[in-house]
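Protocol step 4 of 5: obtain the predicted structure for the target chain.
Materials: sequence only (see below). No template structures provided, no constraints applied. The aim of this step is simply to have a reference model before the mutagenesis design in step 5. Sequence pasted as it appears in the construct record:
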Amino acid sequence: MFKHKTLALMLKLLANVPLYVVHYLGSALGWASYLSYKKYAHLIKINLSLSQLTKDNVSFKETLHCNISETGKAFLETFAIWFKDYSKLKYWYQGCTGWEHVETALAKGKGIIFLTPHLGCFEITSLYYGQFHPITVLFRPPRQSWLMPLINQGRQRGKVSLAPANAQGVKLLLQALKRGEAIGILPDQAPHEGEGEWVPFFGRSAYTMTLASKLAEKSGAQVLIAFGERLENGGGYHIHIKPISDGGINTPTLLNQEIEKAIAQCPAQYMWIYDRYKVRT
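Step 4 output (structure tokens):
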């Protein structure tokens, strides 16, 4: 218990460090992990290669090297964001492209389904939206129980609420949509066995959630795909929001196609280390 408390305190200190320092340390962590763990290195290289998002070997190496740094940044910035004074997070927001789609969706009154892949800074998008409107975000409770209070403290701020990835959580998502509010889902997170289908993802069969497709079809909510682009030199984040047409994710296959399009915008900031092709039991 003492060890966990000490670690939590150390992580909280990141909130008081300038973002460029957090990202510098994160980049070093990314490279240290890549050079130290063969499985880590293999996942990044094979997943990026099979995506075919780089045009040649030179482009592949450039994207790979950038991604190694970006993956480390993604890990450390999570804790900096969680514990940063909420009123000061606004200084890290450097604009939003596509907010007009949010306003259009809210006017329809059927709710919004935000799809936020493991692209860029996926922790920042719900907090950005939660400045203005309620949003309920689906999350998977951690295996380490000591992390749960940190998650609650870091993510449930502003108008952001959390819904666990179980039957009760799905009920909370449906209730939010019925109220015309927004929900947030990580659509490329590997679901538990029985909660997905095997469909193509960058040319390989990946076990893909059916929940997002079912919610979209059942609710008639506007589906928006969003990610927080990580700017250079600790410059903050730019939020990107794009609409998906009605019926655009009504099957897991269509869902993966939309995720692929988003990743293609910024492949160096996708979390290629994530094992997208596994099944959680």
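Step 4 remarks: Strands lie at 93-97, 112-115, 135-139, 160-164, 182-185, 196-201, 204-209, 222-230, 237-244. The chain is about 45% helix and 20% strand.
Proceed to step 5.
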